[in-house]
């Protein structure tokens, strides 16, 4: 079983927890009443987000290819941050592409973004935020409001784009 959510840390001054980055887990559910966490992948810091947290259709899982694709917005801690409960600014948006197997666990293959090189995610380029992915044959398609981007499934090199806006 695959689980996806936010990692958290306990807050010592209060009976609470602070959400941190995103966590992807692989569980052995041979005994459903005692699942075993067999592999984890953590990405980002406080402020990271994903449509997959609220919309299961944003996740692409191709079991025959051991393929898992999840759209993500990654936020990273600032070096001079003094506020532990504040959200960090986003630094990347796109889709992370994983291989998932029982023997090797969760392994990042790479990522695909639709944002122009060097652009940080913001409201004015949110039309290029990846929200869905699919594959046909050996091509991975990532979809945003403004574009469909095609990448090779074997090495994620860009093949083509179709502008929608």
Question: How would you characterize this protein structure?
Answer:
With 165 residues, the chain is mainly beta. It has one domain (47-163). The chain is built from no helices and 11 strands. It has strands spanning 2-11, 16-28, 36-43, 60-62, 67-75, 90-101, 105-112, 132-136, 139-143, 147-152, 158-163. Strands 4-5-6-7 form a 4-stranded antiparallel β-sheet, with no helix packed on it. A 4-stranded antiparallel β-sheet has the order 8-9-10-11, with no helix packed on it. It has a 3-stranded antiparallel β-sheet with strand order 1-2-3, with no helix packed on it. A hairpin with a 4-residue loop joins β1 (2-11) and β2. The radius of gyration is 17 Å and the shape is flat. The model has no long low-confidence stretch (mean pLDDT 92).
Sequence-ordered SSE layout with sheet pairings:
Layout: E1 2-11, E2 16-28, E3 36-43, E4 60-62, E5 67-75, E6 90-101, E7 105-112, E8 132-136, E9 139-143, E10 147-152, E11 158-163
Antiparallel strand pairs: 1-2, 2-3, 4-5, 5-6, 6-7, 8-9, 9-10, 10-11
Structure described in brief:
By secondary structure, the chain is an all-beta fold. The chain is built from no helices and eleven strands. It has one domain.
